[in-house]
Design goal:
Blueprint (H helix, E strand, L loop, with lengths): L1 H4 L10 E3 L2 E3 L1 H26 L4 H21 L1 H9 L2 E2 L6 H14 L5 E5 L6 E4 L7 E5 H6 L2 H17 L2 H13 L2 H11 L2 H15 L2 H13 L30 H9 L2
Parallel strand pairs: 4-6
Antiparallel strand pairs: 1-2, 3-4, 5-6
Helix pairs in contact: 2-3, 2-8, 4-8, 5-7, 7-10, 7-11, 8-9, 10-11, 11-12
Length: 267
């Protein structure tokens, strides 16, 4: 199991690399919200100027509007994404098996406990949404809950907890803002920019390390790949554990699941 330690999410810095500058997930999120806020501020300033509002007042109002919009876009991202995913909260006691696995992993490995949600679909998949560890959300499909055995579900939960701890603010904000603007293709490109094979596969490997049973993660990925496609907006595709649209090409913006299984099988 020593090979697992060098590739886990604890050994990766909790940052995203855009160009040459390493940024935290939250810092990178600002780069997504800022352009939208700037455009709105410019439009507001031009409108105010046309209406004859004094320049200092127009400029101050435009800046304030842009800042408020940016904050709103950022803070509403998790709720917006959960709505797009059609994820419903899992009340305490509704799924004891999942709740026990989450509680056990969080207690044993010092994860912050996320809120739990389910997407009613026969597809086998899971996702992570949020702005920080404390307020994050773990999403699973009903197909995953019914098809995964205990070991496979534990591996999936461990993986998504690792993803949350590594930072999910950027992918969450990207999904929300691009979904709002109808820019699903941009969401895919931004997500691919920061989620390379090493990052995606690294979360798989860390889950295998935490659960001490790599085959469970491999089986979970295979079950997901063998399942049916998931009806989900393209702007949120990058949030799922495996490609929900079941595209075979990694060039489509999602790392090949079969490649990830091959890596796990070599452990």
């Amino acid at each position: 199991m020593s090979g697992l330690r060098c590739l886990g999410c604890h050994d990766r810095t909790e940052s995203l690399t855009l160009g040459r500058s390493p940024l935290t997930s939250n810092q990178a999120s600002v780069l997504v919200v800022a352009p939208v806020s700037l455009v709105v501020a410019v439009i507001a300033w031009m409108t105010a100027a046309i209406l004859g509002v004094p320049v200092p007042v127009a400029a101050a109002g435009a800046v304030l509007l842009g800042l408020v919009l940016g904050v709103v876009l950022y803070l509403r991202s998790p709720r917006s994404v959960l709505k797009a995913l059609r994820a419903k909260p899992i009340a305490a006691g509704d799924n004891p098996r999942l709740e026990n696995l989450v509680d056990g992993l969080c207690t044993t490995h010092a994860f912050a406990r996320p809120s739990l949600h389910v997407v009613e679909s026969p597809a086998v998949n899971a996702a992570a949404v949020g702005l920080n560890q404390v307020t994050a959300h773990l999403v699973v499909t009903s197909g995953a809950l019914s098809r995964h055995g205990r070991l496979e579900l534990e591996a999936v939960v461990a993986r998504q907890l690792c993803v949350i701890r590594s930072g999910v603010a950027f992918p969450t904000v990207v999904a929300s803002v691009c979904g709002l603007l109808g820019l699903a293709q941009l969401a895919a490109r931004l997500a691919t920019r920061v989620s390379d094979f090493n990052a995606v596969s690294g979360a798989d490997i860390e889950a295998a390390r935490l659960t001490s049973y790599p085959p469970a993660m491999s089986v979970a990925l295979q079950q997901s790949a063998d399942g049916c496609p998931l009806d989900t907006p393209r702007s949120v595709v990058h949030l799922w554990m495996t490609d929900p649209l079941q595209r075979s090409s990694a060039a489509a913006g999602v790392t090949s699941t079969l490649q990830r299984i091959d890596v796990l099988d070599e452990i």
